[in-house]
Amino acid sequence: MFHSARAALAVIIPLAALALGGCTRDRVEQEPEGDMAESASADLLDSGGQLRARAMVTRAEDGLRVRVESLAMAPGAYGAHIHMVGHCDPPGFTSAGEHWNPQMRRHGRDNPQGQHMGDLPNLLVGADGRGSFEYFVAGAEISGREARDLLDEDGAAILVHAAPDDFRTDPSGNSGARIACGVLR
């Protein structure tokens, strides 16, 4: 009996290993192709190189979660947007291009023809120079192979503007000058 049990194990163990190996291979083949980034972040600097805010973008189910936090800004409301180019050349930060808008829509959540994927809420800063928001961008990815991917070949940036966004006026919500910029990495 001992000999037949040993012979059975000699057959069962290799078959089990083969079966498990097949399961593992199937699971790997079902994963998405390419490197899908889980997060990107940026330090937002003013034209003098001073840190004013930080941004973090993370993958979420069916989109991206964007968090912007001011660290040292004057009290008030500021427009904030994701821009389509990952460059922040001072003083005007125009190198960041226009708002990220892969769907070619109009600006603003209150615009009947809106909104850009790069449209974010206003950043409300208190007397202590701090404030934050968290926002969900539906249907977007950080990186991959689609037009809606945030980090394409020329990257992306997050900007804070001098005035609050009116959430309606195309192309930038009357949010004024670009006062802080950070390249997402």
SSE inventory with pairings:
Blueprint: H1 2-30, E1 39-45, E2 51-60, E3 63-70, E4 76-78, E5 80-83, E6 123-125, E7 131-138, E8 157-161, E9 178-183
Antiparallel strand pairs: 1-2, 2-3, 3-7, 4-6, 5-8, 8-9
Overview of the structural elements:
This protein is an alpha+beta fold. The chain has one helix spanning 2-30; strands spanning 39-45, 51-60, 63-70, 76-78, 80-83, 123-125, 131-138, 157-161, 178-183. A four-stranded antiparallel β-sheet has the order 1-2-3-7, with no helix packed on it. A three-stranded antiparallel β-sheet has the order 5-8-9, with no helix packed on it. Strands 4-6 form a two-stranded antiparallel ribbon.
Short summary:
The protein is of the alpha+beta class. The protein has one helix at residues 2-30; strands spanning 39-45, 51-60, 63-70, 76-78, 80-83, 123-125, 131-138, 157-161, 178-183.
Q: Which terms summarize this structure?
A:
alpha+beta; 2 domains; four-stranded antiparallel β-sheet; 16% helix; 29% strand
Write down the overall mean pLDDT: 82
How many domains comprise the coordinates?
Answer: 2
What is the tally of helical segments?
Answer: 1
Q: What's the total count of β strands? A: 9
Let me know the CATH homologous superfamily of the largest domain.
Superoxide dismutase, copper/zinc binding domain
Instruction: Tell me the radius of gyration.
Output: 24 Å
CATH class of the largest domain: Mainly Beta
Low-confidence stretches: 11-34
Q: Major sheet: order of its strands?
A: 1-2-3-7
CATH topology grouping of the largest domain: Immunoglobulin-like
β-strand percent reads: 25-35%
What CATH architecture of the largest domain would you give? Sandwich
Helix content: 10-25%
